Backbone:
């Protein structure tokens, strides 16, 4: 069974009832679906991180991700710019210390 490389984009958004958080998640869902054919949303995932002040913060997050047709090695600059734009849009939309955008290569097995 052959493997095909794709580039995955994940955005971790705090699970908040505030409208800006819901709007950002909906906006990313629309963008990922129209640009890449679909996405997956995992809601209410438990997480924790250290704040800039060094204290432990427990958080519930929503994870939205999609696989793109890009190849990380071949399309690195384009993929990197896209990630920067996503991160900036998320930071500008929310009142958070940090919004995590993760991008990496994955391999899909496609059978005949």
Residues:
């Amino acid at each position: 069974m052959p493997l095909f490389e794709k580039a995955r984009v994940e955005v971790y958004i705090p699970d908040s009832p505030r409208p800006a958080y819901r709007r950002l998640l909906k906006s990313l869902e629309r963008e990922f679906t129209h640009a890449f054919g679909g996405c997956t949303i995992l809601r209410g995932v438990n997480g924790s991180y250290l704040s800039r002040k060094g204290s432990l913060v427990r958080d519930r997050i929503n994870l939205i991700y999609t696989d793109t047709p890009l190849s990380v090695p071949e399309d690195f600059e384009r993929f990197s710019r896209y990630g920067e734009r996503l991160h900036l849009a998320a930071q500008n939309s929310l009142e958070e210390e940090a919004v995590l955008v993760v991008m990496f290569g994955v391999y899909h097995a496609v059978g005949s």
Remarks:
- The mean pLDDT is 90.
- Helices lie at 19-36, 76-93.
